[in-house]
């Protein structure tokens, strides 16, 4: 029987202060699908992501990753299956050297010696980080883009089937952002990418899920939702630049003409 790597059914979650973070979420993601998860701050994106590797356990409804239900007793398998890449790499990088950071998760999985070295080198190669040049450096004096790629390498080294990203392009300059998009494009893994960067979503993901106040208000073709500025605005989202430019040019053309005459 073929499982979807991620299957969520009727998931609801209320924080101790009474905030309804998620309400009746149903979502399944197919193998090797790249899905964008968008929504204003407070829409429930982070809460949803934290359920996927058991940092939060379901209160109501079920979350299944691979063949494991997200429960206390399956956490080890779940965390091997789903790799979570946090928004701020500093939350993920805390070892004395880049090498130790990338090796950390795999060592926890019990890898040692040659196997560990192979795994770490492969992961660093996948993100374009040279082990000889970076391996013994401390992450503190690296750029945001380098740190982000090292955090991703540490997750990749654990050989997950699913990658969950929280705002992967946050705090990146344009060149690092471009490298990140190329990297995510090249990874043959199921990916759920929570992002405010709608141009990145448009470029990487055929499918987009929009969360608003803890509910899914859209799940479908990325182009369909991105080309609907009224809908995006209704859910406190900005249209991607690639869609809003022609509209601005048309709107401002008469003004520009008037100024020139």
Description:
Helices cover 41% and strands 23% of the residues. The protein is of the alpha/beta class. The strands form two sheets. Strands 6-7-8-3-9-10 form a six-stranded mixed sheet, with helices on both faces.
Q: What share of the residues lie within helices?
A: 40-55%
**pLDDT average, as an integer?**
92
Shape: globular
| Uncertain stretches | 246-251
Task: Please name the defining characteristics of this protein.
about 260 residues; alpha/beta; Rossmann fold; 6-stranded mixed sheet; about 25% strand; globular
Short description:
This protein has 261 residues and is of the alpha/beta class. The chain contains 11 helices and 10 strands.
Q: Mind sketching the topology for me?
A:
Blueprint: E1 6-14, E2 20-29, E3 34-38, H1 45-52, E4 60-65, E5 68-69, H2 75-81, E6 82-85, H3 98-108, H4 113-126, H5 131-134, H6 144-156, E7 162-166, H7 174-186, E8 190-194, H8 198-204, E9 207-212, E10 215-221, H9 222-226, H10 229-234, H11 241-260
Parallel strand pairs: 3-8, 3-9, 6-7, 7-8
Antiparallel strand pairs: 1-2, 1-4, 4-5, 9-10
Helix pairs in contact: 3-4, 3-6, 4-6, 6-7
